[in-house]
Amino acid sequence: MINYTESKIYTVSKLNKYIKKLFENDFNLQDIWILGEISNFKLHSSGHMYFVLKDKESQIKCVMFRGNNCNLRFTPGDGMKVKVRGDVSVYEKRGEYQLYVREIIEAGKGELYLAFERLKEKLKDEGLFSEEIKKKLPFIPHNIAVITSPTGAAIRDVITISLRRFPNLSILVVPSLVQGTFAAKEMAKKIDFLNKYFKDLDFIIICRGGGSLEELWAFNEEILARSIYNSKIPIVSAVGHETDFTISDFVADLRSPTPSAAAEMTIPDKNNLINNLSLLKSKISRAVKRNLELKTENLNSLSSSLKYQGPENKINQYYQYIDEFSARLNSRIKHRVELYEERIKKDSQRLGSLNPWAIIERGYSICRKIPGKEIIKRLEQIEVGAKMEVIISDGKILSKVEKKEVVSN
Amino acid sequence: MKTKKKIEDIPFEEYLRKLENIVQRLEEGELTLDESVMIYEEGMNISKICLEKLNKTKKKIEQLVIESEEKYSTKPFSEKEGEDAINEF
């Protein structure tokens, strides 16, 4: 605690923190109801509400945070007489004390509201609202029942929207009073009746359109709450407008803000479902086709690599080898033939130069003995007086040897 | 599933999940040819069942007439009859 010695000096924030603690520890300032008139009301874009609560002599700053004001049944405004419930505390940043509001009710509506609160607390403590006991609604309902006034806009909306979303739906309309002294009892009995004779209902919608708190009161009665709780068939509660909360809403397995919304929430859109189905179907077909294509591709690439390594390829290789080989052979033989041809040409040339006639043309002659035609190369082969022929280029000369003489060269 | 449940007992959304599962398995592309043919047939069969489930009920809008605690009847719903339709027991 603060020690008031002259030497001790505190920071502002420490001081404010201390004061705040004083407020919060004071039981008389926590969870209290205050009656007053709203003034200077501002709804901030953050969703928090700021206003001043005043009476003739005095005023106090109030703030109601979004988390608390989202369930308000009305929009507060300047000049409105209200009862607010909250805690007084300090906004340290500015050093201002203010009322942190948790609930606002319009003054004058207090009685019903308090009855509502009391029943709500009681049933909550008994576990009637607990999430674990809430039954799940089937995804595709086939048979539903609607407990409501047969003449109101509510039943028309529910039927129209339900059939628009799911054209082949079986709807059992269970006409009932929905306001007045007997309404709650009647709706409760009808829930029990349906549970007895219509066990195969997918769910029951109990609904009515908007109205004042008094008009919606049947949905805040204990007898109906208990019937909803005991129902084996799931119950959807759809009462009034978005801002209206009833005990039925809390006990029901599903709460819808309005009757139309009940149909939207509980009846699936058949067209969507069918589109979704055909999408899945075409996805399946596409995937199978692609799998097949992939496998075919795989097979093709495998079989082509098999061909590459198989005997056919080897044979082809041999074919090629043979082709190459025979070409080589061909060229060799050709070469050889050419060589021979060359040689023959040369030989025949040489043969030409050796032709004796060619020598005779140049002036030489040949002498042959007569008879015998023996070519005379030496003196001893012939005798003086013997006959011989001399062959020259264009004929022969018959001659007789006159004399032999040795010539030395 | 150990025991074979009847088609009527298996909810639509379970079949829808099966169908989505089939799409996923096929798109992963790791099935053999036989498996994908089998799963394809299963998928087509399931989508048929789903459609049947959607078309199972006939459109019917009736009004409950309670005659006593044990007796009741139904008749076609008509808005015109107004408040007379509300019957107490």
TrEMBL record, chain A:
Where the record annotates domain Exonuclease VII large subunit C-terminal, the positions are 128-351
Broad class of enzyme this protein falls into: hydrolase
One GO MF term: exodeoxyribonuclease VII activity
Q: Give GO terms for biological process.
A: DNA catabolic process
Domain OB-fold nucleic acid binding as annotated: residue spans: 10-104
Coiled-coil regions listed in the entry: none
UniProt-annotated location(s)? Cytoplasm
What reaction is this protein's catalytic activity? Exonucleolytic cleavage in either 5'- to 3'- or 3'- to 5'-direction to yield nucleoside 5'-phosphates
CDD domains to which the protein is assigned, alphabetical: ExoVII_LU_OBF (cd04489)
Q: What is its EC number?
A: 3.1.11.6
Q: Which UniProt keywords apply?
A: Cytoplasm, Exonuclease, Hydrolase, Nuclease
- Gene Ontology CC: one annotated term: exodeoxyribonuclease VII complex
Asked if Metal-binding is a keyword of the record, the answer is no
User: Could you describe the subunit structure of this protein?
Assistant: Heterooligomer composed of large and small subunits.
Family membership noted in the UniProt record = Belongs to the XseA family.
Q: What does this protein do?
A: Bidirectionally degrades single-stranded DNA into large acid-insoluble oligonucleotides, which are then degraded further into small acid-soluble oligonucleotides.
What name is this protein filed under?
A: Exodeoxyribonuclease 7 large subunit
> Could you tell me which species this protein originates from?
Candidatus Sediminicultor quintus
Q: Which gene encodes it?
A: xseA
